Amino acid sequence: MRKDINSLQSLIFTGLFAAIIYIGIWVLRIPVPAMVGRPFIHFGNTLTAVAILYLGYRNGMIAGVIGLGGFDLLNGYAATSWLTMLEVVVVATVLTAVYRGMNYRDSKKNIIILGIIAGVTKIFTTYCVSIVEALMVGTSLRVAYIGAFVSLPATVINSISTAICTPILYFALKDVVKAIMKKAN
Fold it and tell me: Rounded to two decimals, what is the model's pTM?
């Protein structure tokens, strides 16, 4: 799949993952009270991590940007959707760099490590985004740091679910993706 990122098959998979990410957020979201923003628990981050692992850096990132960013644009988070899209770029960059360092070996150990890295990266990026969101509404920097920290519980829950669900979903889909790829070739 990674070899020809512009093939019709790759573009279809990118669009399919973008739609699955969007639907994964839209259908399964649980709002969580927070001082900054309107966070909620969802599986969009997990699905984005899986898309990056299957589709590679560029197409996985595009799927995540369309799925997560598109959700934000269409569901009342338009003012900060660019931050969500930027988070996807950071997560895709980190995951791809580590996966490349693993020589793209998808052993159980490596995929579990990548799931954990995706979750930890998301905690860091969401903390930074919460600070920027607070600053956008005129909060002082010190208050923004504190507010962003206090608002992390939903992110930590999402990150734990990403760390757990990414390897499960990756290996659950592995045989199906191989079968589809074999038929397409």
Answer: 0.88
